């Protein structure tokens, strides 16, 4: 499929939905962004304009490509004619399953329906979709327009055609991808999120403040931003949700969200998106 034949639907106008939409529009794809809340969509349109400017300044988008058309809607029915659907709602299995059930019943057979998830097994969500052979997962890292690699998760019932169709979309978005098996957290979150949880525990135990922890990871281990800045970028609420999924599905006590993380979420200090997390923004 040629790039100009892709029509993308993104479900959910939160941080990841906005980031994926920014990437797609910046690479010239028409996108319909769907959310049930019109006020959230209004904020998303403004945020996408800002992120497109930032991505352009950083050289993250092709210079010779006209931005794709952006439409917004509050009904899943607006996505019925999509060539691909990416769900990017909150990291809660029940919420994702409900959204996926609705959209998968509307799109044409053969349309790849994709859950962007950091931790929830794809085969678990596949029980909710109309055609499990058309369903698979991605894990775009934040912000999607700056990170060139995407983790693709193939479920037990995912068909070859769905994987190939998603690959075509990712190529049109200028992304590289690697396919992994379907286990809780897959590769990146299964390794990264417990490590972030441990870094938060180190701060709570007063071994070192966030600045020192991050500086040590940058200077000693070559980590680009450090674990606490990474947690703030992910969103502390999203991190807590992902850790809960991992803990419930693996039994790994290292995935039980640390109390300091829970306290920050309770206080509304969610990281970059709220202006305050382990750092002020």
TrEMBL record:
PANTHER family according to UniProt: 3-HYDROXYACYL-COA DEHYDROGENASE FAMILY PROTEIN, 3-HYDROXYBUTYRYL-COA DEHYDROGENASE
Sequence ranges assigned to domain 3-hydroxyacyl-CoA dehydrogenase NAD binding in this UniProt record: 8-182
Gene3D superfamilies reported in the protein's UniProt record: N-(1-d-carboxylethyl)-l-norvaline Dehydrogenase, domain 2, NAD(P)-binding Rossmann-like Domain
UniProt pathway: Lipid metabolism; butanoate metabolism
MF annotations from Gene Ontology: NAD+ binding; oxidoreductase activity, acting on the CH-OH group of donors, NAD or NADP as acceptor
Keyword tags: Membrane, NAD, Oxidoreductase, Transmembrane, Transmembrane helix
Binding site for NAD(+): 12-17, 35, 91, 96, 118, 142, 273
Descriptive protein name: 3-hydroxyacyl-CoA dehydrogenase
Domain 3-hydroxyacyl-CoA dehydrogenase C-terminal: 185-281
Membrane keyword on record: yes
Tree of life domain: Bacteria
Ranges that cross the membrane: 7-29
Annotated site, Important for catalytic activity, chain positions: 139
Record Pfam families: 3HCDH, 3HCDH_N
One Gene Ontology term from the biological process aspect of the record: fatty acid metabolic process
InterPro entries to which the protein is assigned, alphabetical: 3-OHacyl-CoA_DH (IPR022694), 3-OHacyl-CoA_DH_NAD-bd (IPR006176), 3HC_DH_C (IPR006108), 6-PGluconate_DH-like_C_sf (IPR008927), 6PGD_dom2 (IPR013328), NAD(P)-bd_dom_sf (IPR036291)
Protein family membership: Belongs to the 3-hydroxyacyl-CoA dehydrogenase family.
């Amino acid at each position: 499929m040629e790039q100009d034949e892709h029509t993308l639907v993104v479900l959910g106008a939160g941080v990841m939905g906005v980031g994926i939409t920014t990437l797609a529009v910046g690479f010239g794809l028409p996108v319909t962004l769907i959310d049930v809340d019109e006020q959230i969509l209004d904020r998303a349109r403004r945020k996408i304009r800002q992120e497109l400017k930032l991505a352009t300044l950083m050289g993250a988008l092709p210079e010779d490509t006209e931005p794709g058309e952006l439409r917004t809607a509050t009904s899943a029915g607006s996505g019925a004619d999509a060539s691909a659907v990416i769900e990017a709602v909150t990291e809660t299995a029940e919420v994702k399953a409900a959204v996926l059930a609705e959209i998968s019943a509307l799109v044409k057979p053969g349309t790849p329906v994709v859950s962007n998830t950091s931790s929830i097994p794809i085969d678990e969500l596949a029980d909710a979709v109309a055609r499990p052979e058309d369903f698979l997962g991605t894990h775009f890292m934040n912000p999607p327009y700056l990170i060139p690699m995407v983790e693709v998760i193939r479920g037990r019932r995912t068909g070859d055609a769905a994987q190939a169709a998603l690959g075509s979309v990712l190529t049109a978005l200028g992304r590289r991808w690697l396919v992994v098996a379907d286990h809780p957290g897959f590769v990146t979150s299964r390794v990264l999120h417990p490590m972030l949880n441990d870094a938060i525990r180190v701060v709570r135990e007063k071994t070192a403040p966030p600045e020192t922890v991050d500086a040590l990871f940058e200077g000693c281990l070559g980590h680009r931003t450090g674990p606490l800045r990474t947690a703030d970028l992910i969103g502390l609420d999203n991190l807590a949700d992902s850790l809960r999924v991992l803990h419930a599905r693996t039994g790994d006590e290292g995935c039980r969200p640390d109390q300091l993380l829970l306290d920050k979420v309770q206080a509304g200090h969610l990281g970059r998106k709220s202006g305050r997390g382990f750092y002020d923004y």
